[in-house]
Amino acid sequence: MKGRQIVLGKLFGNEAAALIQDGQLIDLIADSSALTPLAPGAICRGVVDRLVKGQGGVFLRLPDGARGYLRDRSGLREGQPILVQVAGVADEGKAIPVTSRLLFRGRFGILTPGRPGVNVSRSIRDDQTRAVLTAIGQALIADAAGLPQDCGLILRSAAALSDDHQVQAELGQLITLAAGILAEEAGQPELLLDPPSPHEAAWIDWAEPAPDQVDEGAAAFEQLGVDQMIDDLLRSQVALPGGASAAIQPTRALLAVDVNTGRDMSPAAGLKANIALARDLPRQLRLRGLGGQVVVDFAPMPKRDRATLDQILTAAFRGESAETVLVGWTKMGLYEISRKRDRAPLAMLAAAAGKAAR
Q1: Average pLDDT, the chain
Q2: Which of 19, 12, 22, 29 is nearest to 222 (CA)?
Q3: Is 344 exposed, middle or buried (0-12, 13-18, 19+ CB in 10 A)?
Q4: Is the bond preceding 209 in cis, omega lying within 30 degrees of 0?
Q5: How big is the CA angle at 54 (ends 50 and 60), to the nearest 5 degrees?
């Protein structure tokens, strides 16, 4: 269908949500409990286990015997409790990546401990609306009982389209929740807050702009063709226009992407295939749940066209929520990207359900 569609259903037997735009799968939220007891977004109390000399990080003891790794060791000592948020899914045999920069996400706002101030989404451009929302946020923060003074608040774009009382009510609940958890720093490792379920996360993150259609049901993915879209993502090959293709292949060291022109032998074939892959690469990585060090072997093209491809890659990755650094070209003509792993790899979820990637 044309327009924006949200599908709430099940994937591999667990709750999942899909965002579709004009018939194309744009985003996917899946339950990762089959891979880890601490899903991305969970907030827990950890205890510093060991400082890692030379790397600037620390290993933590987390709930249920899990191990976490925090990159910033500033001011920490062994045995010290600390509140952290799960930032991704660990590779086999590795510690769970966590961050001490907590985020409490709601539909209308995001509470940011350690980063004071009230800010309004830049997508809200009406000055009067911005002023009203800023005043609401400042009043809520000032009146919050037990909330640390260094907490900030970001008003999201959905707040501009809702009733002020509704915004105040939701943000008030979010602030009360955060104040209670932030007061729980002392003690042994403990899970303090589960992340939103996939259906709840869809409501929080995809409600703005308003969808044209919402479909829900245990068989919704199958009935609406989402299962087939996901099957395509479990293949390493990605079809590109004009008979070109790309192969996306994870390895233990890095994620390799190879672009091929197919049967098109024209002088512009390489650039056309590379542009197509560059525009679709953020979506492919997002849906597949892939990140880390990404190395792209683009199809052969003149060096003078690299500037064009740089611009397209920059524009394509600009709106990504996952932290991404476009490192650039190597001396061997490969292109390097560093992307934060912020969700469970789709292939790992499929394997846990007994379905192999192809």
Answers
A1: 94
A2: 12
A3: buried
A4: yes
A5: 20
Under 8 Å CB-to-CB from 65, ≥6 apart: which residues?
none
Locus of tokens 């640390």: 148
Strands 117-120 and 152-155: parallel
Residue 115: is it exposed, middle or buried by C-beta count within 10 angstroms (0-12/13-18/19+)?
middle
CB atoms near residue 87 (< 10 Å)? 21
Q: Cβ(208)–Cβ(331) under 8 Å? A: no
* pTM attached to this predicted model: 0.91
Judge whether 147 and 107 are in contact, CB under 8 Å: no
Kindly report the number of other CB atoms within 10 A of residue 65's CB atom.
Answer: 8
Closest CA to 226 of 56, 50, 69, 5: 5
Distance CA 268, CA 291 (A): 30
DSSP 3-state assignment of 218? Answer: coil
Question: Which residue, chain included where needed, has tokens 């600037």?
Answer: 56
Rounded to the nearest 5 degrees, what angle is found at the Cα of 179, between the Cα atoms of 173 and 185? Answer: 145
DSSP state of 114: T
**Cα separation of 214 and 210, whole Å?**
10
Q: pLDDT tens digits, residue range 52-110?
A: 877 779 999 999 999 999 998 788 999 999 999 999 888 878 899 999 999 999 999 99
Q: Packing angle between helix 164-182 and helix 127-143, nearest 10 degrees?
A: 40
Q: Give the residue among 330, 326, 263, 333 at the shortest CA–CA distance from 298.
A: 333
Q: How far apart are CA 109 and CA 261, in angstroms?
A: 45
Query: What is the distance between the terminal CA atoms of the chain, rounded to a whole angstrom?
Result: 28
Q: How far, in Å, CA of 246 to CA of 260, rounded?
A: 6
